[in-house]
Specification:
The strands form six sheets. Strands 18-17-19-20-16-21-22-23-24 form a nine-stranded mixed β-sheet, sandwiched between helices. A five-stranded mixed β-sheet has the order 9-11-10-12-13, sandwiched between helices. With 639 residues, it is of the alpha/beta class. α6 (237-244) packs across α7 (246-259) and α13 (523-534) runs parallel beside α16 (573-585). It has four domains: 3-128, no CATH class; 138-268, Dna Topoisomerase Vi A Subunit, Chain: A, domain 2 (3-Layer(aba) Sandwich); 290-523, P-loop containing nucleotide triphosphate hydrolases (Rossmann fold); 535-608, Arc Repressor Mutant, subunit A (Orthogonal Bundle). β22 (487-494) and β23 form a beta hairpin.
Length: 639
């Protein structure tokens, strides 16, 4: 039979080029859930996403399983049915029935990425997941033979069967956990492990050999690269058979197995892990070095955390500009000098072209010393792989060797499969920043938001993950002070020095940072002060003080003088501002000015309104005649 003959027996809705979607004849299928494709062996492969059995589908079509082995020729033209839909974006590749009765289905997404899922039997249909069943070994037969070739995937098992050898694989490939049942199944056998040509494959082979040498008669790890020098990265025995040919590989494999030495457990002293340990006298003592003295240690992680709107981006741009051009920043001690150095930054929040380039230029940055990814020019999506712990990030940092690298925000560079609330996962993905930093002398600044929890301070204020606090060697928290427009930088954690004095700063109209002083207050005190300012009892006390002060001054005072008196009494800028706003809204005070803006001598005053003043404003009926004009007016002042 031909592929067209088989397709003619189905209600095909879409597909071309050897992959089709049709309505399954075994159930009331309205979604066209039957995948029809060409397998690796040239046979037609059927898979119903609703769970129907392949044998039942073939029977409904009036065929046998033998009819699915079609004879494809290079000149064959595949029929075309309509347009591919979103439902067919993921291609079915293969399915494998394990001795336990489970079925493993392998798929490929539109972007080429592979994935798999499991099915178990529920009556006459297949249902998703393992349902608590352990798959066991997938093998080229019901009984484990001797010798057995242990490979990394089901496809390789089938390839070895075509070559004439007995093979088996673990259900989850190189990621499989070793179970006692596997040792029992392979006990007393000669086992030849064929490793895939990549790091996971080689590590998997060594791990399995270590488990098997205790129970197997013989264990050998076969390296295909010794007989196939051109083997590609990730290459396996199936790739070898497809490239060299079945007959050639069938003769090579036994020779390789015969020539390979038996696997022996490596002496503990030769293990690379053991060689990483040293006695303490072999370590050299080193003093901590600083990118910014006392604040940002070299080759380590520094965390900058703040609420939105504080100016985190402006802050790290200020630091980058100083390092790139060799100037000082607001965190430097008096008299400190530095050389101009290369820096880099990674951000997913602000446009480089529309915002950051101008901000850095105005800050005096040396543009030639600043490197950053160009996402606009990334047509292949390579930059989206720049995540904490990724090989791509390691490649970039080792190549450019920047003295400083900024990541803003932390969420933009946390791998998608990492839960930020998981301490172990966050530490694992961020730890390479330290090892790479010490290798190439790159300091990392990681920017994150703080949370809004009341009475929280220190590590409790770090959004999403407390482990950010733990892995950082220095933590800087920013926020607003009680002074209007004045912000603070509080050194909340410091592993290599005493906590530094809090720096106070403002951001001018040009968006540049200016240091205005220092303080020994910490983030907790500033946060608590802001919380107190929001409390109703505190505002009521402040309102009483304002009215009392105005009355004692004869009813009015310059606004700046009143603010100074209230501040001296212990009230914060926020509390004073809120109290004045409520008094004005309630008719308790009014504002007026003397001088003029043109003369540059305008002064604003605040005046308390006494009851007599309030009573001078009365509501008149609409038809009340007034001396001011002919029409009735509401709300005129009585004179």
């Amino acid at each position: 039979m031909t592929l067209s003959d088989i397709l003619s027996r189905l209600d095909v809705k879409s597909g071309s080029g050897g992959h089709y979607m049709a309505r399954c004849p075994c159930h009331n299928d309205r979604q066209a859930s039957l995948s029809v494709g060409i397998g690796n062996g040239g046979n037609v492969v059927l898979h119903c996403f609703a769970g129907c059995d392949t044998g039942d589908i073939v029977k409904e079509m009036g065929l046998t399983m033998r009819d699915l082995f079609v004879d494809l020729k290079p000149t064959d033209v595949f029929p075309s049915y309509g347009q591919q839909t979103a439902h067919t974006a993921d291609r079915f590749e293969a399915e494998y029935i394990y001795p336990s009765g489970l079925k493993k289905v392998k798929m490929r997404r539109a972007d080429g990425e592979k994935y798999a899922y499991w099915l178990h039997r529920e009556g006459s249909r297949w249902a998703k997941k393992r349902n608590g069943i352990e798959p066991g070994l997938y093998s080229a037969g019901d009984i484990i033979q001797d010798p057995v070739y242990l490979v990394e995937g089901e496809k390789d098992v089938d390839t070895m069967k075509r070559l004439g050898f007995f093979a088996a694989t673990l259900p989850d490939g190189a990621n499989s956990k070793w179970l006692p049942a596997y040792s029992e199944a392979l006990k007393g056998k000669s086992v030849f492990i064929i490793q895939d040509n990549d790091k996971p494959g080689k590590e998997f082979a060594q791990r399995v050999a270590g488990e098997l040498h205790k129970v197997a008669k013989l264990v050998k790890v076969l390296d295909l690269s010794t007989v196939w020098p051109d083997i590609p990265e990730h290459g396996d025995v199936t790739d070898m058979a497809d490239t060299i040919g079945i007959d050639a590989v069938a003769g090579i494999i036994p020779s390789l197995a015969n020539e390979t030495e038996e696997w022996k457990e490596r002496p503990a002293e030769d293990d690379p892990l053991i060689s990483c340990f040293k006695t303490l006298d072999e370590f050299q003592e080193e003093e901590a070095k600083w990118l910014v003295p006392g604040w940002i240690p070299e080759a380590q992680i520094t965390l900058i955390a703040a609420d939105g709107g504080i100016g985190k981006t402006t802050l790290w741009c200020h630091i980058i500009a100083a390092v790139s051009n060799g100037s000082s920043c607001i965190l430097d001690p008096p008299g400190f000098t530095r050389e101009a150095r290369r820096v880099t930054f990674f951000t997913t929040e602000d446009s480089i072209r529309k915002k950051l380039r101008k901000k850095l230029r105005l800050a005096g940055a040396n543009m030639k010393n600043i490197i950053t990814p160009d996402f606009v020019g990334d047509n292949e999506g390579l930059l989206h792989k720049l995540k904490f712990g990724s090989a791509e990030l390691g490649i970039a940092l080792r190549y450019f060797k920047p003295v400083l690298c900024v990541f803003d925000p932390v969420q933009g560079f946390t791998p998608p499969n990492v839960n930020m609330g998981s301490r172990n996962e966050m530490r694992d993905c961020m730890a390479p920043l330290i090892s790479i930093g010490e290798e190439v002398n790159t300091t990392s600044i990681v920017v994150c938001h703080t949370n809004k929890r009341k009475a929280a301070s220190g590590r409790e204020r770090i959004a999403d993950s407390a482990d950010l606090w733990d892995i950082a060697r220095s933590v800087i928290m920013a926020g607003f002070t009680d002074e209007q427009g004045v912000r603070y930088l509080s050194n909340e954690k410091n592993n290599y020095a005493q906590l530094q004095e809090t720096v106070l700063f403002t951001i001018n109209d040009d968006g540049q940072i200016q240091k205005v002083g220092t303080s020994w207050k910490r983030d907790r005190e500033y946060v608590q002060g802001a919380e107190n300012a929001k409390s109703a009892p505190n505002r009521e006390d402040c309102k009483s003080l304002i009215l009392k002060t105005l009355n004692e001054a004869g009813g009015a005072l310059p606004t700046a003088d009143l603010d100074a008196k209230a501040k001296t009494a212990g009230y914060s800028f926020t509390a004073i501002k809120r109290a004045k706003a409520e008094l004005k809204a309630g008719g308790g005070v009014k504002y007026f000015s003397t001088g003029s803006a043109k003369g540059n001598d305008r002064v604003w005053h605040i005046q308390a309104l006494v009851e007599e003043d309030k009573q001078q404003f009365i509501e008149l009926p609409p038809d009340t005649p007034t001396p001011f004009d002919a029409d009735p007016v509401r709300g005129r002042k009585v004179v």
